[in-house]
Amino acid sequence: MKKFIGLMMILLADMSFAGFRMDDGSRVGAGDNINLIYAHWGRETMRVSSKKTCNRIIKLKREYCSTRRLIWQKDGRYMMVQIKGQMIIKTGWTRSQRELKTVF
User: Fold this and answer.
1) CA dist., res. 104 & res. 100, Å (int)
2) Residues 34 and 87: beta-carbon distance below 8 Å
3) Sign of torsion, CA 59 62 63 64?
4) pTM (two decimals)
5) Alpha carbon distance 82, 54 (integer Å)
6) From CA 88, how far away is CA 19, in angstroms rounded?
7) What are 32-90's pLDDT values in tens digits?
8) Number of Cβ within a 10 Å radius of residue 99
9) How many whole angstroms separate alpha carbon 60 and alpha carbon 62?
10) C-alpha closest to that of 88 among 46, 43, 31, 48
């Protein structure tokens, strides 16, 4: 029973990570440097000015807000990365081009 509970906690911790999994299996998420994504995906497809999006970065114990969003188009999806300077604030994806500038 204890092993089952431990396994479930590991699986839940793995699912709650907000970010992207790169082709080599590494993960990139809030608080990481944008150069990690550039190294795997290359230059972005689009740069847009979005509505103000904020996110609390737990490991930095601070909330950051930004209107700069970089977008990569991969496999019929738009991979969105909200950035402040070189730091990733938030990540998300959509299939709708109309949703690219909305808050996520």
Assistant:
1) 9
2) yes
3) negative
4) 0.76
5) 9
6) 10
7) 999 999 999 999 999 999 889 899 988 888 999 999 999 999 889 999 999 999 999 99
8) 14
9) 6
10) 31
